[in-house]
Design goal:
12 strands, binds N,N-dimethyl-L-histidine, seven-stranded mixed beta sheet, alpha/beta, three-stranded antiparallel beta sheet, 322 residues
């Protein structure tokens, strides 16, 4: 067994292990993103089948002037632009020239990764104060006090990785964090032909499969487990009833996994998987544009505008407090 990584505390380890022991074993998708996982995700965004990234870039580039004008109309100048999960800060490049915020704050689990991206952004926009902050979206958001409107930028359809109830709660949190003046600019993947969705999560090169399987290596480091990726296969499908892609790892044959548990003072415990039994690793919900507009309104936003591509594959929404 590999030694557990000391980057997680006992509570988080306990949560991970409870998920592994659940009747339908599960792991939260945020555990995809160790260094290798983050790199594999970047490759996914370049694949022909994975249309969301390129489509959203095109929408932002084409409609940036309108988005800027709509923001100015709703709340005037932007004092603080906040991007949770900023990563390589590529998409915000479309917005900075039109929004000219006084401050840009990039939040990410890995602040070091974002700090690198900020170095070149700062060179291109010397008049904008920029900072990278290590923060997990599901926890406290350490935002500076800023006079004036706040705009949250949440691209990539990451909202799809939450259940609709969790998504509504997160949108309400964005609304509350605007503190009366500001908005949310958010990218959302739309419901479409299931063959297109299926291909996006089952690419021919097998990059999404590698991304999914890499989670097992990450788990081995986090909890000292002995998952062997070669015993598992990638399984992703579209569930039209739930409007979501489900990603799983499926046992190729009966197998046993062991890990170190704080509950048993570090002694090994584990579980068995029958052939075909799965570990559920991700949901990626898709919305109709109208359903997502309604969700934004439910969350408290007063006005919602949206831009979609010609195929209606993806939408960018601007939801404002007034
Ligand atoms: C980050 N998130 C929006 C991606 C998605 O499409 O749900 C993660 C991903 N999983 C497989 N491919 C991409």
């Amino acid at each position: 067994m590999t030694q557990p990584h000391d980057g997680i505390d006992d509570r988080e380890r306990g949560r991970l292990i409870a998920g592994l022991l659940a009747p339908q074993a599960q792991v939260a998708p945020r555990y995809f993103y160790d260094l290798a996982g983050a790199r594999l995700f970047e490759v996914i965004t370049l694949l022909d089948e994975y249309y969301p990234t390129v489509t959203e870039h095109r929408l932002l580039s084409r409609h940036a002037p309108e988005i800027g004008a709509a923001c100015a109309d709703a709340f005037g100048a932007c004092a603080l632009l906040v991007e949770p999960g900023a990563g390589s800060c590529e998409k915000v490049r479309h917005l900075l020239p039109v929004l000219q915020p006084a401050q840009y704050l990039a939040l990410d689990i890995s602040a070091e990764f974002v700090e690198l991206a900020l170095q070149s952004l700062r060179r291109d926009h010397p008049g904008i104060v920029m900072a990278a902050i290590a923060a997990d979206l599901t926890q406290h958001w350490p935002l500076p006090a800023a006079d004036g409107a706040r705009l949250f930028f949440y691209p990539g359809s990451s909202i799809g990785n939450f259940t609709p109830d969790e998504a509504r709660a997160l949108l309400a949190r964005f609304h509350a964090a605007c503190r009366g003046e500001g908005g949310l600019l958010i990218g959302v993947d739309l419901i479409k032909d299931s063959a297109v969705l299926h291909a996006a999560y089952n690419d021919a090169l097998g990059v999404t499969a590698a991304f999914n399987l890499n989670l097992l290596r990450h788990l081995n480091r986090l909890i000292g487990s002995d998952f062997r990726p070669q015993q598992w296969e990638h399984h992703a499908f579209y569930d039209a009833r739930e409007s979501r892609i489900e990603m799983h790892l499926r046992a190729r044959a009966p197998l046993a996994v062991r890990w170190q548990s704080p509950a048993t003072s570090g002694l090994a415990e584990g579980r068995e998987f029958a052939a075909g039994q799965t570990l559920h690793t991700e949901n990626s919900y898709k919305y109709t544009a109208d359903a997502f507009s309604a969700l934004l309104k439910d969350a408290g936003f007063a006005r919602v505008r949206r831009w979609t591509d010609a195929r209606d594959y993806f939408a960018v929404f601007l939801a404002t407090t007034c």
